[in-house]
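Model the whole thing, not chain by chain.
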Amino acid sequence: MGRYILRRAAQAVGTLLLVMFLLHLLTTVAIQLNGNPAQAFFGDKVATPAQVAAVEQRFNLDDPCYDQVGNPCLGPFVERLGQYAQGDFGTNLRGREVSEIVATAAPNTIRLFCVVLVTWLALGMLLGSAAARWRGSPGDHGIRLTSVLIDAFPVFVLLIVYRYVVAVPLNRWAEDTFGENSWPPYWFKPSFDPDHPWATVVVPGILLGLAGSAAFIRLVRASQLDSYQGDHVRTARSKGLTEGRVVVHHVVRNSSVPVVTAVGLTFAEALGGAVITEGLMNIYGMGGVLWEAVRNDDVGLVLGVVTLLAAVTVVVMIVVDIAYALLDPRIRYE
Amino acid sequence: MSDAATPTPTARRTAGASSSPLADAWRRLRRRPDTIAAAVVLVFFGLMAAFPTLFTSTSPRTCPIREARTTPQGWGGEHPLGTDALGCDVLATLVHGIRPSLLLAIVVVGVSLLIGVTLGLLAGYYLGWVDYLVSRAVEVFLVIPLLLAALLVLSLFKGVDLGTGTFNVILLPAVVLILFGWMPYARYVRASTLEAKNLDYVTAARSLGASDLRIMGRHVLPNAIGTVTALLPTSVAGVISAEAVLSFLGIGVRPPATSWGIQIEQGSEWVLGGAPHILLAPLICLVATVLALVVLGDALRDALDPRLAA
Amino acid sequence: MRQARITTLAAAAAVVALTVAGCTPNDTVEGDGPVTLETWISQDMETLFPGDAGAYDNISVLDVVYDGLVRYDPETTEPYNYVAESIEPNDDNTVWTIKIKPDLTFQNGEPVDADAFARSWNYTADGDNGLYSNYFFGIIEGYDEMQPTTDDDGNITAEGAADELSGLKVTDDLTLEVTLASPFAGFATMLGYTGFFPIAQECLDDVEKCALEPIGNGPFQVTDWQQSQELTAEKWADYTLDETPSYDAIHWTEYAAGETAGWADFKAGDLDLSFPPTAEVESAKNDPELSERYVEKPGASLTYLGFSGYTEGPWNDIEFRKAISMAIDREGIISSLGSGQATPADSWVVPGGVPGGEAGTCEWCVYDPEAAKAALEKAGGWPDGEKLQISLGDDDAEVEYFTAIGNSIEEVLGIPYELNILPSDDYFSTRSAQGFDGMFRNNWFPDYPLNENYLSFYASGEPGAGHWGWYSEDFETKLDEAAAAPSLDESVALYQEAEAILAEEFPTIPFRWSFSATYYSDRLENVILNPFSGAPILRKIDVTA
């Protein structure tokens, strides 16, 4: 087992290096196409000479390879890896450290993700199990249709409608019903409140979770259908176990394995969704930071945050792999 | 155990099957009413993209501002679906806006399919270092979430002027969506190639001295393609939705070029302003299209993999 | 069983975390806590250094944290002395003597004296520091020597020779003597602008820190700034001047999406000041309860269209420019897109608010499709197959406006257009580099209330130069004449004549005036808008707990 984890970790480091190289290549091509290397970081934004100089120094843009289209610019890449290794992820246009920005923003994103995760698991397990249990029934079709609808509906419309149409009346209602100093009014605040980070992140989290839950519902359904046809279920049934026991012990339990794997993959997708959710609900998280950075053409910040997030994703994926290996005895880790 | 949400590529077809799997699938497809409804919806929107003038005679660029936010007047009225915040006819914008959305979807899915199938086939067939490289590449691209990649690439390349032709307008979103969208195809094709490779008739073909290229093209690929075909409608739906999100973030197709995504984005402002039709019209079309595609994809999958059919 | 337990555990842990965090009772104090005004700014505010603050948001915060030599009367926009005891020019308006009120201090205890102003002005005027308000000091003698030299690409080749303005003298503790580079009767009017605020020595010693934790001399003191999230300023207990606020603190929430973001929170009672997004303007207006808590004031910021006079094109013909101007349905566009936030413009200087401002100076700023077509005819039409490029910065609301402008032109004149949306609304340098081809958006936000402020930037010095490649010798002579006029009134009248020349030659097309309006919560009273920034004058508001 230990060796498996080690090997997996080594592999992850390799992946991470490749990811960084990919990001580096993208940046390099953009710079080579855009012309003036430092200016490329500002798009069409007008930068002060100090800002240009900072970017030039930061990314070693004085290197001549940036003038040759097609040159992968390996030298600057190695240097940048060195900077990353020292925890230096660059600065935004105004010189604030990316790592510092991320440090303030990350807790809110983690809160959001906790809510999202709970929503996924709750909805996925409940609806997916129900759909598989009563396969082919109107309920099953209903759940399938719902999951498809969830997929088809753009999440930003959901958030906008919630924020502008639903939140304020709900908030008023909650205040009238439960009193101003109780918790419910905070759940329905139209935007994030740093003084009540958990309460105000619940509803946005549920909405974002709802958007990603369709995949989970289908996943759970499909994997439980597999289980229902599996030999172990047939054996259990023939042993005379009650149906409830069969479902809980042999079907639901087995289906949790692919769900864990999917959490890792969907995590990456949810990061994208967080950009919209946090941007719209004024949550100061990683997504909100990216949202602002893109609007301000702060490529340095976008690059830094994306690199960090990619690193996080790699770590999450290993954790999931290891969890998977622990959960599923069929996986061999020689 | 592989990802069970998607059909495990099956080699259920025995060597002695009398009809082709695709013909079987077609027969099963026809029997489902939801599939037929979905197909009708898609044909309708397909027609709209191909012959916009059949549906409206108004130009989407005629926008008298004083007629802004007219409520829908129904069929026969001057503005059947009303006008938007700028006074442009909603129906006309809708009809003309489908083209960039659809073109983008087709280009993206087509190209990523090509890349994915080629790489997946090579990796699955040759294994060894080819497989190692492909698997690594898949992993690397999977790590960067599509939306984050889109944000990064589009902000990096914002300064590059691409012009305003129909194709140029969608070029940048297309490149991003392809670059970060080919991996699923590669994975599925690789998996089914692995299975198909060991089938008796493939082994037989090989022992008869058929070239690698011939085996891949004639024997392995047709077997693998079924799985991927089932993915296509859903992928097209995914790209159409992704376009809407990119437009919303201001990095997709740009005005005055129009797309459903842009319409939804602009309409969402007016939900409360007494003009919900500006949002509802494109939203309903988008949801209907995506829904139809997903239903079709589901049906296709079930048809190709009868084990999962309800 | 193991796997099930792990998943359940994870879910349970998350649920517990949520409920635990969510179930402690809220400790908001009602009644006897400090009375705080809740308002908002946008998230891109990065600095609170007076000389570097050019955006609406910094200015509205700095306006309560710092006090300038003069402040402006909300009704007449006329300056009155505030930190200054007196401001006196000599006979030809070239040398100004500024006396400062005695015994004023910064929030860190340092004295607000002549040195405090001199160090601030010298630092900002020094081009090597690259501050936003640098250009204001061009009016003072010795400015040119402080600017770096640049090559054609805009790269700095040498730093400015001087570090201090030679025209700025501290004659005693409380007296400044300012020698201008050329006569200017309106100098006193400029002095209330953020760029002219004083700074403490401690601030100059660590400018970066001071940009985040300002050391002001105004009624409020910044106590906490979580950049991009929130900013709090509390009443400064030792404030001695007379505009003492009646409440204890101001809390700004920072919004990513700007104004529209705040409206939902305003309705939910979390903000005291806000304005609805366009779509909700009507319903807010019709709400009988809301409409009682509403103030409005014509704004002073002009959005106008310019042409690339430095490139070949039909726009170099004045008839063409007239045609474009008369083809734009200002009324229609503004009533549809910006109801309550703008008014159609038909002059270059804001009418009614600023000395010398008069409505209707633009003869061709009326929507007249027939006349527009005739003018286009006269100009020789539009080349077939070409598109008129309209460039502007990336801002959703503006893109909508300019799409409407383009549509209006296309409809009346049949000229197809395309929008060239640059990823930032910061246009100044692209414009100075003469990088456009066609028409482009311009916006002028006045710095101080004088018609000169709306006109002097049209002076390009030579043919083909300037943002619009426009030059008029008559116009520039008139400006010089006006600046040298013996009294402010005569000066204003001469500037009006300069505006008339502008109207005649028509290099740019006025489009709309900003219009400021704000709704406020029922806790507030005495909400007055600053006549030219349009922001509520925070220090004058009364807040009940």
